[in-house]
Amino acid sequence: MASAPDGLTCDDEGDRMKKKPATTADLDALPETQVGEIINGELHVSPLLKPLDSFFASYFLVELIQFFDKRMRGAGGWLIVRKAEVGLGGDILVPDLLGWRRERAPRISEPDPIIPTPDWVGEVLTPETELLDRELKLPLYERAGIPHVWFIERESRLLELFLLKAGRYERRAISLDAEPVRIEPFEALTLDCSYLWEQLD
């Protein structure tokens, strides 16, 4: 059996080697070029979206805001934002896109608004984040009872809809490369991605 350094018992050495749970101080210490999330007490760091993927995410953000945000003379009913920290139990996640029905939306004009669990989350899948989104974050979204989750992938031009039913997600794959589509929970909007592909091709 390996011995502990002088002055330390084996138990002391084991305690010293244990990782401390990540805190918001760890998130605050990250540079602006990285996105930090705390999942199961561990800090997970991802790069910012690359320009093409950022444009891709912004397209959906603008389409949804223009149609559903009352202050932009749309159909109303939703507050939709990009990259906001959300606490789910002891975890802190930063979805690429997220939204609340207007009656549940945080008062973002307040200095320190209370952020409720979103009603919708959208994640842009990239090689750097896909494993994190699928393996770690999606189960947390399910456990938190988020009714709708979108996984959107630029290369495949595919949207995966995860719809919560009886506490479990049902998955449906939707092509964004064909006809305009209507997708829950924003089925009032006909989503036509032809302009998007014209810009990216």
Automatic annotation (TrEMBL):
Extract the Pfam families matched here.
Answer: Uma2 (PF05685)
Q: Ranges for the Putative restriction endonuclease domain?
A: 35-191
Where is region (Disordered) located? 1-21
UniProt-listed Gene3D superfamilies: tt1808, chain A
Protein name, entry field: Putative restriction endonuclease domain-containing protein
Species, as recorded: Corallococcus caeni
